[in-house]
TrEMBL record:
GO molecular function: dihydroneopterin aldolase activity; isomerase activity
Residue span(s) of domain Dihydroneopterin aldolase/epimerase: 4-114
InterPro entries from the UniProt entry: Dihydroneopterin_aldolase, FolB_dom, GTP-CH-I_C/QueF
Protein name per its UniProtKB record: 7,8-dihydroneopterin aldolase
Origin species: Pseudoteredinibacter isoporae
Catalytic activity: 7,8-dihydroneopterin = 6-hydroxymethyl-7,8-dihydropterin + glycolaldehyde; 7,8-dihydroneopterin = 7,8-dihydromonapterin
Domain of life: Bacteria
Family assignment from sequence similarity: Belongs to the DHNA family.
Function: Catalyzes the conversion of 7,8-dihydroneopterin to 6-hydroxymethyl-7,8-dihydropterin.
Pathway(s) per entry: Cofactor biosynthesis; tetrahydrofolate biosynthesis; 2-amino-4-hydroxy-6-hydroxymethyl-7,8-dihydropteridine diphosphate from 7,8-dihydroneopterin triphosphate: step 3/4
Top-level EC class as recorded in UniProt: lyase
Keywords per UniProt: Folate biosynthesis, Isomerase, Lyase
Keyword Isomerase appears in the UniProt entry: yes
Length: 120
């Protein structure tokens, strides 16, 4: 299976478990790998047959900037679920980074895989 990817998609979000976090925006960053057979798009040279990384990126920005969660786990789960359904993606790997969360760390976050990868 082929992969369509998005790296370093940054969105400012209201997210966190502490009261002060509800009053500010914090930068989140997303790296996504999404299973997709690219041959129909390649054979037709038609975006209709491609997994449109711009449309996926726009959807992520819209969802993250219009919702509020305490845990990044909740956001990751909801977002991966809606991407799988809305874009008919069979499998994805999502790295969700909250780089400002721990002062002593360069980065913290989650790496999740959802769906069925299919043929490898
Ligand atoms: N596994 C998680 N651990 C923590 C989270 C989280 O969302 N998932 N969140 C926090 C705080 O909101 C933190 O980001 C503030 O510094 C702590 N641990």
């Amino acid at each position: 299976m082929d992969i369509v990817f998005i790296e370093g998609l940054c969105v400012d979000a209201t997210i966190g478990v502490f009261d002060w976090e509800r009053k500010i925006k914090q930068r989140l960053s997303f790296d996504l790998e999404m299973a997709w057979d690219i041959r129909p798009a390649a054979n037709t040279d038609d975006l209709q047959h491609a997994l449109d990384y711009k449309a996926v990126s726009d959807r992520i920005v819209e969802h993250v900037s219009t919702t509020q969660y305490e845990l990044i786990e909740s956001l990751a789960e909801e977002l991966s679920d809606l991407l799988l359904k809305e874009f008919k993606i069979s499998w994805l790997r999502m790295k969700l980074s909250k780089p400002g969360a721990v002062r002593a760390a360069k980065n913290v976050g989650l790496l999740i895989e959802r769906g069925q990868r299919g043929d490898r």
